[in-house]
Each structure stands twice: as structure tokens, then as C-alpha cells.
Amino acid sequence: MSFVEFKQSAAQGAQSLAVWMHQHHKRILAGVGGSMLLTSAAAFALAYEGPQAHPPAPSWVSVAVASTAPQQADQLSNADQVVYTTAHVRANDTVESLLRRLQVTDPQQLRQLSAQADLRALVTGDPGRVVAAQVSNLGELQSLHGRLPGLKPVAEGAEKARQLRELTVKATPTGWDVQTQSRLVQPVLRVASGTVTSTFFAAADAAGMPRNVASQLIDVFDTQINFRRNLRPGDHFNVVYRVYQAQGQTLADGRLVSAEFVNQGHDYKAVWFDAKGDAKVSGYYAPNGDSLSRAFLLSPLPYDRITSGWGWRENPVMHFHEFHKGIDLAIPVGTPVKTIADGRVVYAGWGTGYGKYVKVEHPGGFATIYAHLSAFKVHVGEPVKQGEVVALSGNTGWSTGPHVYFQFFVHGTPVNPLNIAHYSPKGTAVPAALKPEFLAQTAEPRHLLAVIDGGSPVVDAAAHAAKEPQHG
Q: Greater confidence, 112 or 67?
């Protein structure tokens, strides 16, 4: 067979096979499917769709997008930004120093604000107050808010309620909007208890008692307890005092309203009585109304250490034997020195050995001298009240270290100052006509003292009261 004949025969055979497959395609599919099942092939169907087209070739499209990110970044960097800052008022602050700590640096604003009387008042007294401000990134003040120093009584002579004053300063297109607002602040009673292990002030700090309240306690019992030399480890105290709070923050410490001090086994108690309409009667009394006041305080200083007592000694400067007619009380320079009794200043000047000294004459033939001072707070001829500051301690004259030389005279004769209590009669008790008012006003402070006596917390008493049946 020639090649041509073979080609023609193969074409005819292929055509016949295609016709047969078309006529019997169902059988072919069934047979193929069965054979796949028999060989466990994982095929579930077979379809014939004819010749498949090739997928189209991928094409890429590039689109140009204009970005504004650089311009937006420039706008953000050039826009004014506000910084929120706070600072505490410091002692000896000026308006400018406070504003600079608040990040205000604009020279013109610093000059303008330093001239504001209200802002000058903001930096006087009561250091520690927080001032808040909003300042631009250019150092320009936008607003400021702070509490003015002090709490003012709601009414003249009012003992309890006080007013808080707040200052707000805002920058406006035409200048500064300065406003002062007042709001009522009510007092809250607090209690503290402590035991002396070294010094009284260390015990007061450990008890969380403010320093000015501790000083008040010394003033109350200074005619009965010698805080310089009579305290012993184990002495203890309980106090009830007033504080003024707003939004949970203590704004100021107030008056000591009742106190108890146990010194060497002797129990001393005091309550404050505010006699309405009679300021002369107002003061501290024993819980039964007896007066705690005495003609003389036991010391002109809040605390001290005796470095040279009454009697014969060798002069520490001139080294000759002499009779020391007073006592030397070691104390840091600048400590306030108080007169121990009412009187009149008869001398305030320099003495060769005394250095700077003050002499006060008191009724009944008594006199006192306070020497080696650094500064005077009174002048000759001025009347003074018991406890009034007459000078600041120092190291002037014949002195080998900071201290106060204290002398006490009875009819011109020097007497040992440690025996002052022997010459100090008691004051007047609460008048009978005011006794009901006294007992009513001091009922709560006396009750709180009774509750905390022996260290029992007030909260325990409150919880006990809450458990008791209520009668309506």
C-alpha cells in the first residue's frame, strides 16, 4: 500500500471512529467511569466540553495619584498647639517665675501679667497650691486657673464656715479677662493619736498631724507641761482638729478643737469654747469649764534644749566664774521668740553681752529678758499679749552658738525661769451664765476625745452606732 493510500485509509478510519463515539458516547462514559471506580481513583464525574480556550494574558494599569501628605504635615506643624501645664506656688514666688514654670515665655505677656494685682495675690502666702494653665506652642498663655491664698470667714467672727476664692484668667482679642469666684467650704473634724518615743514633733509627724496643729497643742498645754524637759517616752496624745476640704482635697488646717495629753501619768485635757459676743471669754478650758490659761507661759520657744542652766558656771566666752542668772536655750537662728505674758516693751536694742535683746515688763512686778536675738518684731513702748512674737532668735553678743538667753524677774530680782509655774495663777473659769452654751458647744469634741481615748478609732464607734437599733 502506498503512502497516499495509507493516509486516505487512516482518515476514513478516524472519521468512522468519531461517528461511532458520537453515537455511543453514553456507553463510553459509563465504561470509563466504571473502570475509574474499580481502580479506586478519586474521581466523581467526567464531562466533556470540547476544546478549552487559553486564559487571556494579564495586563497592567498604572494610575497617577496626587498625594497631599506633605502639605498636611506642614499645616499640622504650623498650627497652634495647646499644652496643658500645672505648677505649685513656691515660697518667694513672683508672677513671672510661676508663669515660666507653666511654660509661658512670651515677653509681652510676662510683662502684662506681672502687672496684674490679682495674679500678684496668687503667689503670696500658702505655698503648695496648684495652678493650672493652657499655653500655646509659642509660649503664649491662653488661660489660667488657681486658688487664691487663705480662706475667708463667711461672716465677721465666724468660727466654722469659710469661703474659697478661685482666680481665672483668659486671653481675649481685647486683653485679659480676669475673674474671681467664691464658694463655700465647710469644715471637717479629724482626729489623730500618737505616742512620744523621741520628740513630740516626731510623734506628731508619725501620727499625720499637721505642724501648725502640733504647735497649737503646745500652746494649749504650755502652761501645764514643759515640752522642753518634761516629756518622757510613752507619753501620748489624742487630738481633734478642724480642716477645710473641697472635692476631697484639704485646703487648709483649722483650729485644734479638743485635745488630751498624758505626761508622766498626768492626764491633761482641753476643749475650745467660742463664746458668742464675748471674745474675752473665748479660749481653751478643761472639759468641766475650768480655765487652762495661766499668767505666764513656761517657755518663750516652741521647743529648745537647755545648754546652760541657772546657777554658778564658767563663762564660755570670757572664762571667768559667774552666777548665771537665766537659762540658755539652744535653737536655730530665726526661730520666733514669744513673750510669756501680757506686758509692755521697755527695751529693744543692743547690750554688750546680750547682743540684741528685748525686755518686757509685766503686771504685778514681773519682767522678762530675751537676748542674743537676730531681729526685733516690736518697738519700745509697744503693748504685747501673751504668746506674741517679739523677736527672732540669733547668735549676737557674747555667744558661742545659736541660742536664746531667757531671764525672769520678780520685783527686780532674777528668779530661775524653770520655776515660773510657781508664780502663775490660774485664769477665770467659764462664767456660770455661759456654762450651758459651753457644754452644748463642746459636746461633740468632748465625745470624740472619749471615743479615741486609749487609741480606739472613731470609725469603730461609728460602726458600733450603726449596728444599734434605730428608734423612729
A: 112
- Consecutive H or E run containing 122: helix 117-122
For the segment 407-422, the average pLDDT, to the nearest whole number, is 90
Angle, alpha carbons 442-444-446 (nearest 5°): 65
16 lies in a domain?
Answer: no
Residue 25 phi/psi, 5° resolution? -65, -30
C-alpha cell at 373: 536675738
Residues sharing a CB contact under 8 Å with residue 264, sequence separation 6 or more, in sequence order: 230, 232, 235
User: What's the grid cell of residue 179?
Assistant: 475673674
Cell (9 digits) for 464? 458600733
Q: Environment class of residue 358 by beta-carbon count within 10 Å: exposed (0-12), middle (13-18) or buried (19+)? A: buried
d(CA 332, CA 342): 25
Q: What percent of the chain has pLDDT over 70?
A: 75
Query: What's residue 65's pLDDT?
Result: 56
- Examine the fold and report which residue of 159, 184, 209 is the final residue of a domain before the chain moves on: 184
CB 369 within 8 A of CB 405: yes
- Our count of domains for the chain comes to 3
Would residue 265 count as lying in a domain?
A: yes
End-to-end CA distance of the chain: 134
Residue 426 gets which letter from DSSP? B
Q: Any idea what the CATH number is for the domain that residue 446 is in?
A: 3.10.450.350
Element (H, E) at 9: helix 3-23
Which region among 57-66, 138-147, 330-339, 403-412 has the lowest average model confidence (pLDDT)?
57-66
Half-sphere exposure of 388 (CA within 13 A, CB side): 17
Contact 370, 406 (CB under 8 A): yes
Q: Which residues contact 389 (CB under 8 A, 6 or more apart)?
A: 336, 337, 338, 377
Crossing angle of helices 458-467 and 443-452, rounded to 10°: 100
Domain end residue (candidates: 184, 202, 222)? 184
Q: What is the CATH number of the domain that holds 364?
A: 2.70.70.10
The percent of residues above 90 in pLDDT, for the chain, comes to 40
Interstrand relation of 311-314 and 321-324 (parallel, antiparallel or unpaired)? antiparallel
- Tens of pLDDT, residues 371-396: 999 999 999 999 999 989 999 999 99
Domain limits at 205?
186-293+428-472
**Residue from 283, 269, 282 nearest 446 by CA:** 269
Residue 421: closest CA among 223, 284, 228, 229 = 223
